[in-house]
Amino acid sequence: MDAMPKWAEVTLVPLISLLLAAILSALVILAIGENPWAAVKLMVSGALGSTYGWGYTLYYATNFIFTGLAVSIAFQARMFNIGGEGQALVGGLGVALVLLYLPFPHWTIALIASAAGAALFGAAWAFIPAILQAKRGSHIVITTIMFNFIAASLLNYMLVGPIKAPGQEPATSKFPATTQLPSFQDMFSTADTVLFRGAPANVTFFVGIAACFALWLLIWRTRLGYELRAFGHSESAAKYAGISPTKIIVVSMLISGGLAGMMAINNVQGEAERLVLNAVEGAGFIGIAVALMGRSHPVGVFIAALLFGFLYQGGAELALWTSIPRELIVVIQALVILFTGALDNMVRMPLEKVFLSMRRPPKPDRKSTTARAAE
Q1: Are 309 and 61 contacting, i.e. CB atoms less than 8 angstroms apart?
Q2: pLDDT at 358 over 90
Q3: Number of helices (H) and strands (E), helices first, in the chain?
Q4: pLDDT tops 90 at residue 265
Q5: Which residues are paired to 276 by β-bridges?
Q6: Beta strands of 151-201 (E only): which ranges?
Q7: What does the angle CA 118 – CA 231 – CA 298 come to, to the nearest 5 degrees?
Q8: Can you say whether residue 169 is alpha, beta or left, with left for phi > 0 and alpha for psi between -120 and 50 degrees?
Q9: What pLDDT sits at residue 201?
Q10: pLDDT band at 367 (very low <50, low <70, confident <90, very high)
Q11: Per 3-state DSSP, what percentage of the chain is helix, strand, and coil (rounded to 5)?
Q12: Which CATH architecture has domain 59-304?
């Protein structure tokens, strides 16, 4: 029997970790001469107080859903894919090549094709680190970090050379109008009311929700998912059961890279409508924090992505209206990673003791036992 119930594992531990990170963040804000409560209210109003704020929050959250899921599927096989940044960059290249060089009569068909291109390019970029890990024993963390830099250099080369738009900064030409995805403003505004005015949130958010559901089905309702989890719990036991380590390492990394690459349909096709330099903006690394906080579960990843989307948009409001720098949000993210990752046992172990003490049967009353024996 587990020392702590599953609900406490999934909800209570992350919430306490988040509370500790929030307390330390408040102390940092106080130390730089700002009011923490006023900062929180400004973040909430800026990120959630209007449809415009919600539009940006959900746009950022969509990016983090894909990169968080990418890290999560690798975690299931006990691998640390830290290359989501590079895989998302190369996924953007796949989106651009598909949309620039293939004709599409409608955005729905373009979305399917660009999602396939992004996933294929992202998976291909994860394949080489995966095969090096499976066949040569090269550590996946080292190789994926190195491939991030190679991906950035490859994108730079492509955007100043082969696919650069004539007479512009390093970027491609704008994608055809038939490939542009509907934004939330297009989808939810009426003749009388305009919602999400100017916000970049688009239909990709619902693709992210579908990806969460699909990954849940894969991990907990398929044979492959069972093999992934079995390998992650014990490689030796998985080998004994006939599960191929090479297959699990390669397949899990291909899925992980594909999910990271699919982030590009949100920021490249949905928002910029062309491929530009630094399109990922660190979302690949934030996916690590999202996966840690979400306990590598698709539902947890979705909730954590919303939280980090709130932090990103709220942080932009803080930087705009106060003397608090935008980099403070990086500090808050680092604190969340610290408490949900490195210091996880600091929260978990006291909680386990509490739940164990609640389960332990009460000690018998010695006096009453002696009296009953005498009778």
Answers
A1: yes
A2: no
A3: 18, 0
A4: yes
A5: 171
A6: none
A7: 50
A8: beta
A9: 96
A10: low
A11: 75, 0, 25
A12: Orthogonal Bundle (1.10)
Rg (CA), the chain: 24
Buried b (16+ CB within 10 A) or exposed e, 352-366: beeeeeeeeeeeeee
CB 332 within 8 A of CB 346: no
CA proximity to 43, closest of 59, 27, 66, 26:
26
Greatest pairwise CA separation for the chain in angstroms? 103
DSSP state of 202: B
SS3 276: strand
Cα dihedral 34→36→40→43 (10° resolution): 20
Which one has a higher pLDDT value, 7 or 115?
115
DSSP structure class, residue 171: B
- What's the CA gap between 85 and 152, in Å, rounded? 9
Q: Retrieve residue 278's tokens.
A: 């630094």
Amino acid at 221: R
Determine which helix (DSSP H) or strand (DSSP E) holds 221, and give its type and residue range. Answer: helix 204-221
- d(Cα 375, Cα 373) in Å, to the nearest integer? 5
pTM of the model: 0.90
What is the domain partition of the chain in residue ranges? 59-304
Q: What are phi and psi of 276, to 5 degrees?
A: -125, 170
**Quick one: which of 228, 295, 291 has its CA closest to 255?**
228
Backbone angles phi, psi at 183, to 5 degrees: -85, 170
The residues near 133 (Cβ < 8 Å, ≥ 6 apart) are 79, 139, 140, 143, 249, 253
Residues counted in the chain: 375
Question: Which token pair is 7?
Answer: 């609900």
Q: Is 369 a residue whose pLDDT tops 70?
A: no
Dist. CA 44–CA 39, nearest whole Å: 9
Contact present, 265 and 118 (Cβ < 8 Å): yes
Check if the beta carbon of residue 82 is closer than 8 Å to that of residue 141.
yes
